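Input record (Table S2, row 231):
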Amino acid sequence: MEKIIEVKDVIVEYLLGKVVVSALRGINLEIEKGDFIAVMGKSGSGKSTLLQIIGGLQRPTKGKVFINGVDLSKLDENELAIFRRKNIGFIFQAYNLIPILTAIENVELPMIFYNMPQKQRTEKATKILYKMGLSDRLNHKPSELSGGEQQRVGIARSLANDPEIILADEPTGNLDSKSGESIMEEFVEVNRSFGKTVVIVTHARDVALYANKIIHIKDGLIESIEEIRRN
Ligand SMILES: Nc1ncnc2c1ncn2[C@@H]1O[C@H](COP(=O)(O)OP(=O)(O)OP(=O)(O)O)[C@@H](O)[C@H]1O
Ligand SMILES: [Mg+2]
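Output record (magnesium ion complex):
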């Protein structure tokens, strides 16, 4: 199997006044291409911090992150932003869609940075939204969509630039269990049909069980890695 994400001896410390808070205390982790990983652990254990480190949204205090062999610490802020845009799609608990834009405009937005012509953008966004079951919601604004529908738009947007890696922090955290299940089925599709490497953070074991590996984090350290077997 091919390694796509490598986290080496990562420590993250925050300085709060004079107090040092250790969010990650020495993480070593390898994720293979095509993996579907769930990160679980108590509140404050470091799950979101780990996701941000993997996605290059934040830099570690010590240690390194490699994505497809690229050492993120060697990239300056501008190079890192370009690298993220090309390689990583993010999905958030609170959807983070632009309220004044329609579903299709939200999905087209990341493509604008690539100077993709309007016609091509619209075609691509439409195609992804159809796959997410939103063919009749293209011109709805976020406030005119249910939570589950907004999160589908969030997933569609994360796929816009065709990144290899999809990272999601509690993507079902604001949803009822039924919408949560259908969002998790979309992640399975994103992993299997689109062939993306997926890492999600969740509190809920039933959500984590959609993944093929669960990484349990405790107090900023990996406690165990659980392989999920399916019959
Ligand atoms: N910007 C910050 N400044 C100071 N401390 C922080 C900051 N961000 C996170 N922390 C601390 O780092 C630790 C890990 O935080 P993190 O957000 O990664 O936890 P989490 O596992 O995602 O928790 P939750 O399940 O509540 O989202 C916590 O103790 C938190 O208080
Ligand atoms: Mg968190």
